[in-house]
Design a protein that fits this description.
Elements (H helix, E strand, L loop, with lengths): L2 H13 L8 H10 L36 E2 L3 E13 L7 E6 L5 E7 L3 E8 L8 E3 L20 E6 L6 E6 L6 H6 L3 E7 L1 H4 L9 E9 L19 E4 L2 E2 L2 E5 L2 E8 L6 E5 L4 E6 L2 E9 L2 E3 L4 E7 L8 E6 L2 E10 L22 E10 L4 E4 L11 E4 L2 E9 L8 E5 L4 E6 L11 E2 L1 E4 L4 E8 L4 E6 L3 H4 L4 E7 L4
Parallel strand pairs: 2-5, 4-9, 10-14, 13-21, 22-25, 24-32
Antiparallel strand pairs: 1-2, 2-3, 5-7, 6-8, 8-9, 10-11, 11-12, 14-19, 15-18, 15-20, 16-17, 16-19, 20-21, 22-23, 25-30, 26-29, 26-31, 27-28, 27-30, 31-32
Length: about 475
């Protein structure tokens, strides 16, 4: 079987998820809900794609910042409904979406280290959903475990202690078997943590600190988002903050951009057509020092923070952030502005790694016999614990992608804690991957080693491939952090 056939079989599992050995009731629910949300574009065979849009025809929107409904002494309360909505992705065309507050890119939550966030989420959809704070250090009851969902019409509260350093996180749906379609239809948003050490650096801030969620879509001629896991490569419209290849008017000064790959399947390889990308951060926070890079590669779920200095560009210049597939965002230099920001030679130091006491091996692969994506030959089972880790200990996880036969990319996302990439196929990470990570690319035939210290909370979390169409249909496992016994 070739790669196309393998992915098609994987896609067939979407409509019949109950055939997976571990699906059970959750699989039956996925079979009922997948493609039946009433939002159009659910019959890919008869779908006519929308006409292509010329790049740089619409402005890049910046997601609004969510305001707390209550401010306490050391915590803030936010309310966020999950509901269907309609938005204009392509100019002049209405598209039904699912969104946090009905928005195709949910509102940004700006939190501060040491100040807790309570998030009340009301499910106004006709089927279960939930919220996972991707990259967040949170107790298991508030992690958005795939089996811990919010019933239609119900409200639940998530508590985020924000004990970690400043970082670009994001939140998205994680309801098992439904997360891929839910994210695709719009259930994603930024969660940005700041702290004193970051603010003391003087990096670009305020209107010059811009989060950009990148993803792709197949949009039907009627404006519908077409969700077809069997044809994941056919999502030709590249979106930045929900708009196709938009432009952003900038001043001739430094900007900080927080780049997030919110797609299901696409790998972005980003570069500038002129000027230079200076990477300052990874998934879990700032790097020890700025790094000049020719390209930033992001697999689904990964983030990178970059600084672009437009000071050397004449007014009237367009600087293009482009992917291998074409333009992504056009930055139009329209004027000058005072720039009191800095780009220090040193950012946030990385601590020395403690000694690891356990090494685990994980193999990611597609199993054509099971028509499923697997970890160590098994599909996800919520009743099974695949790894027990002692609270406070450090482990090395070796993750190998066995899918050379089908040439399928995977990545690896670990809930509960940030990790450090030790090496890829024995080669130490490049400076741009040397910081704190929670998601890492694992190409076909490659092995990555990551090291994490599991300390703080006990209970059950998951780890999985963050190509959501892979994790939805098996490529996920369960981790339990336990206290040491005498």
């Amino acid at each position: 079987m070739d790669r196309r056939r393998a992915l098609t079989l994987g896609g067939l599992a979407v409509g019949g998820a109950a055939i997976l050995p571990s699906a059970g009731a959750a699989g039956a629910g996925a079979a009922r809900h997948s493609g039946h949300h009433g939002h159009g574009g659910t019959d890919p065979v008869r779908t006519v794609a929308a006409a292509t849009v010329e790049p740089f025809g619409v402005a890049l929107p910046v997601p609004p910042v969510l305001r707390p409904v209550y401010v306490g002494g050391d915590a803030d309360l936010y309310q966020l409904p999950v509901r269907a909505g309609t938005t204009e992705i392509l100019p002049g065309v209405a598209t039904p979406v699912l969104g946090f507050d009905g928005r195709f890119v949910g509102p940004t939550i700006r939190a501060r280290r040491g100040r807790a966030v309570a998030l009340q989420v009301t499910n106004q959809l006709g089927h279960p959903t939930n919220v996972h704070l991707h990259g967040g250090f949170v107790p298991p009851a508030h992690d958005g475990h795939p089996m811990d969902v919010i019933a239609p019409g119900a409200t639940r509260s998530y508590a985020y202690p924000n004990l970690q350093q400043a970082a670009t996180l994001w939140y998205h749906d994680h309801a098992h078997h439904m997360e891929a379609e839910h994210i695709y239809r719009g259930l994603h948003g930024f969660y940005l943590i700041s702290d004193d050490a970051e603010q003391a650096l003087g990096l670009p801030s305020g209107q010059y600190d811009v989060p950009i969620l990148l993803r792709d879509a197949l949009i039907g001629a009627d404006g519908s988002l077409v969700f077809d896991p069997a044809d994941a490569d056919n999502r030709p419209t590249v979106l930045a903050n929900g708009k196709p290849q938009p432009y952003l008017r900038v001043a001739a000064r430094r900007y900080r951009f927080r780049l997030l790959n919110g797609s299901l399947h696409r790998i972005f390889r980003l570069r500038l057509d002129r000027g230079q990308l200076i990477q300052i951060g990874t998934d879990g926070g700032l790097l020890p020092a700025p790094v000049a890079v020719s390209e930033v590669k992001l697999t689904p779920g990964e983030r990178a923070e970059v600084v672009i200095d437009f000071a050397g560009q004449p007014v009237g210049t367009r600087v293009v952030l482009e992917d291998t597939s074409g333009p992504v965002v056009g930055f139009d230099v329209v004027g000058t502005a005072t720039d009191d920001s800095r780009l220090p030679d040193r950012l946030i130091p990385l601590p020395a790694l403690p000694t690891a006491t356990v090494t685990r091996d994980l193999a990611l692969s597609f199993d054509p016999a099971k028509v499923a994506f697997t970890i160590n030959g098994q599909t996800y089972d919520a009743t099974r614990v695949d790894a027990r880790v002692v609270n406070g200990t450090t482990e090395i996880w070796r993750v190998t992608n066995l899918d050379t036969r089908f040439n399928i990319d995977h990545d690896f996302h670990l809930h509960m804690i940030q990790f450090r990439l030790l090496d890829r196929d024995g080669v130490p990470p490049a400076p741009g991957e040397a910081g704190w990570k929670d998601t890492v690319h694992v190409p076909p035939g490659s092995t990555v080693r990551v090291q994490a210290t599991f300390s703080g909370f006990t209970g059950r979390y998951v780890y999985h491939c963050h190509f959501p169409e892979h994790s939805s249909f098996g490529m996920m496992a369960q981790l339990e952090v336990v206290n040491r016994t005498a």
